[in-house]
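We emphasize that the prediction below concerns an isolated chain of 131 residues; any contacts that depend on oligomerization or on bound cofactors are therefore not represented. The input was used exactly as deposited, without trimming of termini.
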Amino acid sequence: EVQLQASGGGLVQAGGSLRLSCAASGFTFDDYGIGWFRQAPGKEREGVSCMGRSSGTLYYADSVKGRFTISTDNAKNTVYLQMIRLKPEDTAVYYCAALERTVVALGARAACSSYYDRHSWGKGTQVTVSS
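Result of the prediction step, given as a token string:
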């Protein structure tokens, strides 16, 4: 069974940094892609960053390019999202998700933009950026 648990959220001032972690079990990063998504109040869920090691594909939303970095620790089966230069508009609940290989094969952008019903979701972690 695929399970994911995000952590590391919190309250930070604009310009600050946070590192989110997502502990994964029931799969490996060679079998599934992995992605970070976020949902702000009153807004739709959006893909922040997605990657598929098996297909060598990587995507960042334009709004986070140069500020957010996705990475994995295979030994710990954990995926991270390093966030720097945070802005108030980054405030949201952040979720990690396992992406089916067939979805990742379509590209990381596609996996981050659609096929949400085929992703396996973990519980989110709140990130609040104060101005």
